[in-house]
């Protein structure tokens, strides 16, 4: 399925609405998560890391983090989850991948980005900023092309930060809109 990540994103965003329509008290669930304070990070951050490692998008979890924690703490949870997933994915791929063909993934990139070498900070940051697929492409490409870990780490931090803040703000906005 070509738009698998988009379909997953829409379905996950619609789940709270469907659950509420079926009688689930979403407000009570959100209140319970908020009452756990930073302990709730013990659930949401590992969930974010697991989705970041997988080929699925972790953006729905990032939106939920904003919904539960608000923009500031949601951005922190998103940053921790995205960086944890990027680091874990990088090392898993680097240690286990023998030979993977990336031309199909690179073909999805904007033409101007394809001109840069994979190890270039412009490539690593620019691709990371592409919604839904950028993090996976960078994670695989950096590991397979043996980009030095420190360069991978700092470029991911630069690329993750604005997206983490944006998704947390959108999630917090949803919370505000429905009065949670």
Structural write-up:
Belongs to the TVP38/TMEM64 family. Keywords: Cell membrane, Membrane, Transmembrane, Transmembrane helix. Pfam families: VTT_dom. It is a multi-pass membrane protein. The chain crosses the membrane at residues 33-54, 66-93, 118-141, 153-178. With 180 residues, the chain is mostly helical. It has one domain. The chain is 75% helix and 0% strand. It contains 9 helices and no strands.
What secondary-structure arrangement, pairings included, does this model have?
Blueprint: H1 4-21, H2 26-35, H3 41-53, H4 59-96, H5 103-106, H6 111-114, H7 121-128, H8 134-144, H9 149-177
Family: Belongs to the TVP38/TMEM64 family.
InterPro entries: TMEM64 (IPR015414), VTT_dom (IPR032816)
Pfam families: VTT_dom
Q: Which bin fits the share of residues in helices?
A: over 70%
> How many structural domains in the coordinates?
1
Distance between the termini: 35 Å
Q: How much beta, percentage-wise?
A: under 5%
**Mean of all residue-level pLDDT scores:** 82
Low-confidence runs: none
Structural class: mainly alpha
Rounded to the nearest angstrom, the radius of gyration is 17 Å
| Secondary structure: number of strands | 0
Largest sheet: none
Number of helices: 9
Q: SSE order, as H and E?
A: HHHHHHHHH
Net shape: elongated
Transmembrane segments: 33-54, 66-93, 118-141, 153-178
InterPro entries: TMEM64, VTT_dom
Protein name: TVP38/TMEM64 family membrane protein
Domain VTT: 58-172
